[in-house]
Design goal:
Strand content of chain A: 15-25%
Shape of chain A: globular
Order of helices and strands of chain A: EEEHEEHEHHHEHEHEEHH
Largest interface: A-B, 54 and 42 residues
CATH topology of chain B: ABC transporter involved in vitamin B12 uptake, BtuC
Distance between the termini of chain A: 43 Å
Number of domains of chain B: 1
Oligomer: heterodimer
Radius of gyration of chain A: 19 Å
Largest sheet of chain B: none
Shape of chain B: globular
Largest sheet of chain A: 6 strands, mixed
Helix content of chain B: over 70%
Strand order of the largest sheet of chain A: 6-7-8-3-9-10
CATH class of chain A: Alpha Beta
Distance between the termini of chain B: 34 Å
Number of helices of chain A: 9
CATH topology of chain A: Rossmann fold
Structural class of chain A: alpha/beta
Structural class of chain B: mainly alpha
CATH architecture of chain A: 3-Layer(aba) Sandwich
């Protein structure tokens, strides 16, 4: 079976700096795959390459076997590649209700419709409602996003990515900066993602990585360093060295 | 589904585009102006087409976040097309001529939108400014068509829809402008509450994320820029039809700059900002001009400087106190805020 997401020999340079070195990565269908690595390893660059925010200098990106290397970001999203952002990228002036309703109508291909009001059929409304309920946003659905507590914004960040009905979901540090009290909701939301969605998780929090992932890739200096199931990666002396090395630097 | 059957989320969504009482009040007052101020039709007419022009800028700036210093380009094209159609009797009926004027401006809007898509705010300011200057000089160069500095003269307007003669007091003009403004407003209201309109607000807020949920950002911006050009063209056409005059100053930088000023006075992104701003600006201008006919611009300038020197932060708190209250009467955030106040 073709992998859900695959990169072949991906290279990205910024001036003289090589951020991604000949990266070939496969995310299997239905996988819970984690991409970890020390600070500056180039994890976010990889996400930006995958989603089309950045263009690689070389290499290919395949989504379920289809070459998407040359496609713009919005086309990739419509093909089922969705992402969350490490730092919230939300629509500050919109409410969660508007945000989710917008994502649902875009996903249904109604985004160019200007003659009718938003979400005017029952199944779309049900979809919006289900998302708001599932991500604990129903009680704040009419509050401007900018004024939401951080934890709620983080939930909206994930809900928005899910509203696009992804086949592959890229989670960029979903729990980053969330206060302890609100962490539970986020972790539960991540854990309850539907099984048919393949997930690539980028995370610093090792507890989350090891409780969530069934496969881990370690990125160092933009290149794939080690890959394997969690228990193997955890035992790997080279991985320990990389992380300990980072710890002594800090 | 009829709205009364909607429950839960569907009702909440329908509520987003519900008519607020402030809106009804506004249009009732506008309608009553016909009866209340029979000897102020001239300024009322100016307010009406200016309001439509500002509404056009609000569509791109307030909703899509595209800043422009050359919106007069589309106003001017509309003004000249309407003038030429009437002068040479190509199309005598004003409403039809107005539509043609709008479409001409729209075509220009579509073509130039590709230039405006490139770059950030400063680039956009320069490009839009450049396009307006360019058109002004073209109009100047082809003075055999445009009448150059003297403008198009001797325009005689045929009755609206073949029935309503333009009268000396400007009553027909005002009612005509008001009806056009209202129809165009209804259309704009429909647009901003549609999925398309919401996607524009999303793009203004965060184009990166908008693309990440599948919104083709540039295509949407091109669409609204083209629509806004149509609006500006209609506004320009109205101004020609109601004054029976079109001259080079339709393209002037001052017109574009005033437009931005009026919109900022009224507030962006809720449609009524343009309308309220137009009323406020024209009345202020009129009052100052009566009080000190030669130096009224001094006071406009002074007021502007004071507003700016006070600082954006404080300015928003002081000035916005009024508009924010007004805005709440029109805007759903008002009901949301009211609901929050009630629940707390």
């Amino acid at each position: 079976m073709t992998p859900a997401l695959e990169t072949q020999g991906l290279i990205k340079t910024f001036g003289g700096l090589t951020a991604t070195r000949d990266l070939s990565l496969q995310v299997a269908r239905g996988a819970r795959h984690a991409l970890i690595g020390p600070n500056g390893a180039g994890k976010t660059t990889v996400i930006n390459l995958l989603t089309g925010v950045l263009r690689p200098n070389n290499g290919r990106i395949l989504l379920e076997g289809t070459d998407i290397t040359a496609l713009p970001a919005h086309k990739r999203a419509l093909m089922g590649l969705s992402r969350t952002f490490q730092i919230n990228q939300l629509f500050a002036d919109l409410t969660p209700l508007e945000t989710i309703a917008l994502a649902v109508s875009e996903q249904r291909g109604e985004g160019m419709r200007w003659w009718s009001s938003l979400v005017n059929d029952a199944s779309a409304a049900a979809e919006v409602e289900a998302l708001l309920q599932r991500f604990h946003l129903a009680d704040v659905m009419n509050v401007r996003t900018a004024t939401l507590p951080y934890g709620k914004q983080r939930l909206l960040e994930i809900a928005l990515a899910i509203a696009a009905k992804p086949r592959v979901l890229l989670l960029d540090e979903p729990a980053a900066g969330v206060p302890e009290a609100e962490r539970h909701d986020i972790l539960a939301a991540v854990a309850s993602l539907p099984r048919e969605v393949s997930v690539l998780l980028i995370e610093h929090d090792m507890d989350l990585v090891f409780s969530f992932a069934d496969r881990i890739s370690v990125l160092v200096n933009g290149a794939l360093f080690v890959e394997g199931p969690p228990n193997e990666v955890a035992r790997d002396p080279r991985v320990k060295a990389v992380y300990l090395g980072e710890a002594t630097d800090a | 589904m009829p709205w009364h059957e909607r429950t839960g989320i569907a009702a909440s969504i329908a509520d987003l585009s519900r008519w607020r009482w402030g809106e009804m009040l506004f249009w009732t007052l506008a309608l009553m102006a016909i009866l209340l101020f029979p000897n102020r039709y001239l300024i009322l007419t100016e307010i009406a087409w200016l309001a439509l022009f500002v509404l056009s800028l609000d569509l791109i700036l307030g909703y899509a976040g595209i800043i422009s210093l050359g919106h007069a380009a589309f106003f001017g094209v509309g003004a000249y097309v309407a003038g030429l159609l009437a002068l040479h009797h190509y199309i005598d009926e004003p409403v039809l001529a107005l539509l043609v004027a709008g479409v001409a401006a729209m075509a220009l809007g579509f073509v130039t939108s590709f230039l405006v898509m490139r770059g950030a705010d400063l680039t956009r300011l320069m490009v839009t400014l450049g396009i307006a200057l360019l058109l002004r000089e073209l109009a100047n160069r082809f003075s055999n068509i445009t009448g150059g500095f003297d403008g198009l003269q001797g325009i005689v307007m045929a009755p609206v829809l073949g029935m309503f003669e333009f009268d000396l007091f400007g009553k027909t003009s005002f009612i005509y402008c008001l009806v056009v403004l209202f129809v165009m407003f209804l259309l704009a209201r429909r647009i901003v509450h549609s999925p398309f309109g919401l996607s524009l607000r999303a793009i203004r807020n965060n184009p990166l994320r908008a693309a990440a949920i599948g919104i083709p950002v540039n295509r949407r911006l091109i669409a609204i820029y083209t629509i806004a050009a149509f609006y500006a063209g209609i506004a320009g056409g109205l101004s020609t039809q109601c004054t029976a005059l079109a001259s080079l100053d339709v393209f002037s930088f001052e017109r574009s700059a005033d437009l931005l000023l009026v919109l900022v006075i009224g507030g962006t992104g809720y449609l009524y900002g343009g309308l309220i701003g137009a009323v406020g600006f024209k009345l202020l201008q009129d009052a100052l001009a009566t009080w000190t006919p030669q130096y009224w611009q001094f006071w406009i300038g002074l007021i502007l400087i004071i507003l700016v020197m006070i600082g954006r932060e404080r300015l928003q708190r002081w000035i916005a106190w009024g508009p924010e209250r007004i805005k709440r009467m029109f805007d759903k955030s008002g009901t949301a805020a009211a609901a929050r106040e009630k629940s707390s």
